[in-house]
Each structure stands twice: as C-alpha cells, then as structure tokens.
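Researcher: Sequence recovery benchmark, item below. Answer with residues only.
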C-alpha cells in the first residue's frame, strides 16, 4: 500500500519520552490496550492450571509453594492491569508496555521453575502430562500475546528451556529425547506463528489508523472548503448589496432625467443607459438569490394567489420583447387546473420569467408556448406541470443536465452572443426543489427546447392557517 502522509505521521509531542512519531506511538498504544484487555483470561487459566499441577499431578510441598508464588505473581499482574485501566488515556505507553513484557517473562520463568521442580523427581507420565500442559499454555498465550512478540518470547522461551532442559538432563528413555526434540521444534513453530500473527495484528491496526486519519483529514479539508465557500458567497452577497444600492439610485435618476426635456439623441443615450442598468440589476438580484439559496436563508411564502394572474404578470413584459423579435408567445392553461392555490407566487413568477426570458433570448424565429396542466389533484394539494417550449437554437443532449448547475452555459460564446451569468437555471432548479418539484429539459439542437418543471401547491380550503403546523 502506498504510504499515506498525513499530519499524524509527523513526530508529535507525546507523553512518552521515547523517540517515536505519533503514528508509531498510536500503534503501540493500541497494541498495549489489546494486551491489557485480554490479560484477565490468561491469569485465570494460570491459577487453575498451576493448581492442577501442584495439587493433582505432582502434589509435593515444593509444588504447593510454587503454586502460591505463581498466584502472588498473578495477583501482582492483576494489580498492574487495574492500574493500567485506571490510568485512562493519559499514560506512558512505552513504560506500560515494558511492564507488561516483564510480567509475561516472569510468568514464563515461574512456569519453567514449576516444571523444573517436577522434572527432578516425577515419573515419566507426570512429566509428559506437565509438558503437554506447558505446550497448551504456550499455544493459548499465542493469541493473547499476539500484539507483542517480545511478551510472547519472554513467556514461551523459559517454559521450553525448562521442558527441553529437563528432558535432556534426565535422558532416561527414547521418549524423553523425543520430548526434548519436539519441544524445540514446537517452540520454533510457536515463535514463527507469533511473528506471523503479530504482522497481521500490526497491519490491521495500521490500516484502521490510516483509515481514521484519512477520515479526519477529509473532514478537516471539507470543513475548510465549506468555510471558503461560505466566505465566497458572503463576499458575493455583500458586494452585490453594495452595488445594488447605487445602481437603484442611478436608475432612479435616469428615470427622472427621462422626464425632463431631452433631444432625440439624448433620449437614445438615456434608453441605452436604462437598459444596461436594468440588466445589471437582474444580474445582481440573481447573485443575491443564489447566495441566499446557498446559505439556506431563502424562505418560501405561503399565500393565496391566482395562477392565471401570476402567469400573465410573468409574461406581460416578455410578450412585448418576443413581439419585437417577431415571436409568438402563447399561454395555455389546462381546464382541470385549479386556479386558486396557496404557495409563493413571487418565486413561481421568478422561475417562469427565467424560463420564458431564456426562450425569448435563444429563439430567433418561431414561437414560444407556455403550458400549465395538473399532474395530481388531491383534496388538500395539487401538483402542476409547467412547460416552456421554444423553437430556438436548442441544447446539445450532453449539456441538458449540466445547464442546471451554477455558472454553466452551453458554450463560451453564449456569454458573448446572448449575455447572462449561467445562474438563472441553477436558481430555478433550487426554487423548484423548494416547491417539492423537479425541473428538466428536452431539446433538439437547432429545433428548439422544452423546459418542464413540476411544483406542489396547497389548495385553499386546506391551506395551513397562521400558527398551525
Ligand atoms: P444565462 O441564461 O444567464 O446564461 P441560465 O442558467 O438561465 O443562464 O442558462 C444557462 C445556459 O443554458 C444558457 O447560457 C444557455 O446556454 C442554455 N439555455 C438556457 N435556456 C435555453 C433555451 N431556451 N434554449 C437554448 N439554450 C438555453
């Protein structure tokens, strides 16, 4: 796996005085936690098995004393586990790790001593039973100590030294030689298995840590990106506000100027000035709306209004514009459409004006048709489908989805030829979403476009009264 560099890889100040980077330290910390978490089980087994050896298999006084020593060590290790757990997260990881390794080694030495005590006098059967128990103990410790090979070595080597040593020292039968030999082979196999298991544990801890760091890095980066976007839209809002106020003054003054005595040339210049000012105001309002939507500050009204009136208001100015280009603009309302609904007429008007204005802008000849039809009528609400169809330049199919994203236009020359910011459709799409609807387009290049959107409105009798949920 390629190394992942993150802020966590760098050496970080830690509670430990040992030279390690923060990643190594974190791995060691998790391994140490694993060791201590599993320590109870191992200690319980030690007490029981040592008791079986000292009281059942070879019940001599020396073995009983050995059992007491073993229990004392277990007690000491349990105290250590309690203290470790009480230390919470604020502990010197290397120190605790070393303590655990020393504890495990002492435990291995104690077992080795127990076996030596038996090995001096016990008959072969007891000796073999003891060896079998030692092998079992070591195999059991393999999983518990997998996260710390040094602890496993400290535990298993003294045990096997004792088993092999006793077998070689007694060397009374072929079986004892065989025991010496197999215990060496077994130790070797156990050490290999421990190393392999440790590698696996290490890898999985490393992977999970890297995954955690990646997620933390991603979260941090996305927070930074979010705050940059917020700052950007705040800047857009502020500047648009700042420009809009003097712009309104310019337009107001231009209107007053229009009421004074002007010659024809002056009137023409004034007209151009007013048109440019109005276009600029439309752009400023778009930017303001967009940033308000982005920051979630845009609220939808709930008022009673007539659809036909809203539609006429939306298109009245554009009918003149269309007529000036020789285009026919017609409106069709399906007879089943409930005309009085509850919603936000201002926002509906905004979507319609945007779509119809685009249709007028991008159509050179032919007609523009606006339709409303009900999709779903229920007792308390209606879902309407709006269509704005034109016979204009059309949109390439690969762009039909993308044009609803902010600042997107079909091609760079659009701005030059038709002007615009590429914000209109993105605002429409968000407004339609807020009206629980969706917007889409079907288009054929050179043949025209059909923009559709749906929107839900409450019906008057069921409109929520102020104060109700
Ligand atoms: P603007 O019109 O301000 O550039 P819009 O978001 O309203 O921004 O539209 C984005 C782009 O979608 C336009 O620049 C144009 O390329 C394309 N488009 C929108 N409406 C039409 C239409 N009726 N016919 C052809 N192209 C259109």
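Model:
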């Amino acid at each position: 796996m390629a190394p992942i560099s993150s802020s966590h890889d760098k050496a970080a100040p830690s509670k430990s005085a040992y030279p390690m980077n923060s990643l190594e330290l974190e791995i060691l910390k998790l391994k140490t936690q694993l060791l201590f978490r599993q320590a109870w089980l191992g200690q319980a087994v030690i007490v029981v098995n040592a008791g079986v050896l000292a009281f059942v298999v070879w019940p001599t006084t020396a073995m009983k004393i050995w059992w007491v020593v073993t229990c004392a060590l277990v007690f000491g290790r349990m105290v250590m586990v309690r203290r470790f757990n009480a230390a919470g997260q604020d502990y010197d990881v290397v120190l605790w790790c070393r303590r655990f390794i020393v504890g495990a080694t002492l435990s291995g030495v104690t077992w080795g001593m127990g076996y030596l005590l038996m090995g001096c006098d016990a008959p072969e059967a007891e000796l073999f039973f003891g060896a079998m128990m030692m092998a079992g103990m070591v195999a059991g410790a393999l999983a518990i100590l997998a996260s710390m090979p040094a602890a496993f070595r400290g535990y298993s080597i003294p045990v096997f030294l004792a088993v092999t040593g006793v077998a070689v020292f007694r060397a009374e039968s072929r079986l004892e030689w065989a025991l010496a030999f197999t215990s060496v082979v077994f130790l070797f196999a156990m050490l290999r298995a421990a190393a392999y298991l440790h590698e696996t544990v290490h890898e999985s801890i490393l992977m999970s840590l890297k995954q955690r760091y990646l997620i933390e890095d991603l979260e941090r980066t996305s927070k930074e990106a979010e705050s940059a976007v917020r700052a950007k839209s705040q800047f857009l809002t502020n500047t648009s506000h700042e420009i809009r106020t003097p712009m309104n003054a310019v337009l107001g003054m231009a209107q007053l100027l229009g009421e004074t005595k002007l010659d024809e040339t002056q009137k023409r210049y004034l007209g151009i000035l007013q048109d440019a000012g109005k276009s600029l105001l439309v752009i400023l309002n778009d930017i303001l709306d967009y940033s308000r939507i982005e920051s979630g500050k845009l609220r939808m009204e709930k008022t009673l209004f007539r659809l036909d009136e809203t539609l006429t208001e939306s298109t009245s100015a554009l009918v003149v514009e269309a007529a000036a280009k020789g285009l026919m603009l017609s409106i069709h309302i399906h007879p089943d459409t409930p005309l009085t609904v509850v919603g936000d007429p201002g926002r509906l008007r905004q979507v319609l004006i945007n779509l119809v204005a685009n249709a007028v802008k991008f159509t050179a000849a032919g007609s523009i048709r606006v339709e409303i039809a009900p999709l779903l009528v229920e007792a308390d609400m209606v879902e309407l489908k709006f269509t704005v169809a034109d016979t204009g330049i059309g949109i390439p199919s690969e762009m039909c989805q993308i044009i609803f994203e902010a600042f997107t236009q079909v091609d760079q020359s659009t701005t030059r030829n038709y002007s615009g910011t590429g914000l209109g459709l993105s605002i429409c799409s968000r407004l339609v979403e807020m009206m629980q609807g969706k917007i889409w387009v079907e288009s054929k290049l050179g043949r025209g476009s059909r923009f559709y959107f749906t929107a839900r409105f409450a019906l008057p009798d069921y409109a929520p009264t102020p104060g109700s949920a």
